[in-house]
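Because discrete structure vocabularies remain unfamiliar, we turn briefly to a single example record, giving the amino acid sequence and backbone structure tokens:
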Amino acid sequence: MVIKGVGIGRGVAVGPVIRMAAPLPEPSDAPRAESVSAEHEFERVKKSLAKVQEDLNARAEAALQGDDGAKQAAPILQALGQMAADPALLDSIKNLVDVGKSAERAALEGFAGFEQMLTALGGYMAERAGDLHDVGQRVIADLMGVPAPGVPQSDKPFVLVADDLSPADTASLDMNKTLAIVTIQGGPTSHTAILARARGIVAVVSASEAEEQLQDGTMVIVNAAQGEVAVDPSEDEIAQAEEARAQAAKAKELRGRPGALKDGTLIPLLANVGKPKDADPALEYGAEGVGLFRSEFLFIGNSEPPSVEEQTKAYAELLSRFPGRKVVIRMLDAGADKPLPFLTPEDEPNPALGLRGLRTLKAHMNVLEGQLEALARADAQTDADLWVMAPMVADEHEAEYFVKLGKSKGLKKVGVMAEVPSIALVADKVAKVADFVSIGTNDLTQYTLAADRTLGSVANYQTAWHPAVLRAIKLIADAGNANGMPVGVCGEAAADPDLAVVLAGIGVNSLSMTPVALDDVRAELAKYTMEEAKAKAEAALDGQFYNPAE
């Protein structure tokens, strides 16, 4: 039997299944004993919340010391810790305790109420609802005095099967024991998928049949390239899977060479990084520069914006690692799934469609101009080729505004991200005012197809293989090539080796991805000439590689 899902990357793994532990039993709704005061129960809740927050913050610190993928989980874990300290959540739980609920039941209902509220908002906030559920389970487990649900322990390597994985669980996976992960929920751009790809974990998500078909001890082959899980494979199938793993390992032999097609057409391969210290794995995997540096780490967890001096130091630290090489830094992308208390409104009805990215920065000019000033100073101190871009730009007017402002601060290369479908429709005008465009395919896909990237039920829409998404990318690439404006892709699509070939054929000039994906993408590009890549792109644009039934 073969279970279909959505593959992450193209790795292959063989091993026995271990299922994620069942959720905690639901706390009783019976009134608490009269001898137990509300004050006593509320103190218990506060202690558990504080303990969970401390644990999540400790996990975040540990993640920063781990591999590149684990580092990417750090800001997510910090955000989870902030959830545990939400005053509104605490007030809600207190009200439930005051009307006679036990600490455990009050925590359950308090978290559930907030989860429902976030789920109703959809988009990024629905994604945070799943994260909030994980925090709630940890708090309830602490109140019950039992271990929190999490990744099972095993002396032998295993394939982990779960409904879904929280960022905390994904970040803490033992890479020596976890052969692969299979989740019933999730999509290709969910936190689980992104962190799995960043850590180089073989994964298949949105495999709905896994819930009934995979039990502890079941032998499986997880084939991410095919998006399949083979159940109880034969010895011949296992041997073929092992051979596929050996072939994949050969991709490392091209490390250090520039990204290029078979005919020599250069397609620079860059790395997505989240902190200056992430330069190490980027260089290790042969990145030719940085295609996306996320500047949010300087702002998350703070009560006020970092100083210009603090920012300058961090940017200069990164730039100094790439002398003579291209480094693209994204301006602060606050809002939606990255709220900041000193920038984003707390009661925005639909944050994913509200003040986010450049819209937020324009509402806080001190932050916008301070970051641009810091970038200009860091550029003057180093020899890297600095490119700066604004996120969530909707049209040529916003593009022109940001480019002029950046140039007025002394920056040489100023461009925008293409994540909103509207920018593809006016790409010809954007190409006349911006120095470059970088396409963020995660959000472009989500907004183009109106499909929440965290929901397994619409996972077949959460793919940049959809012809509508590819045609939007082509509009931007065509406009760029016609006007001499470079166009890159820095979303998860760039890390898909097959899709990377299509993007090259469409006319994208560079690709940026998590460092562990560089080997496979470099090897796949080298198999095709530009004419062959264009032919594959034409087929993809025609929908030949997209099956809505999957």
Residues 474 and 483 are 14 Å apart (CA to CA). The mean pLDDT is 88. DSSP finds 21 helices and 16 strands in the chain. The two ends are 16 Å apart (CA to CA).
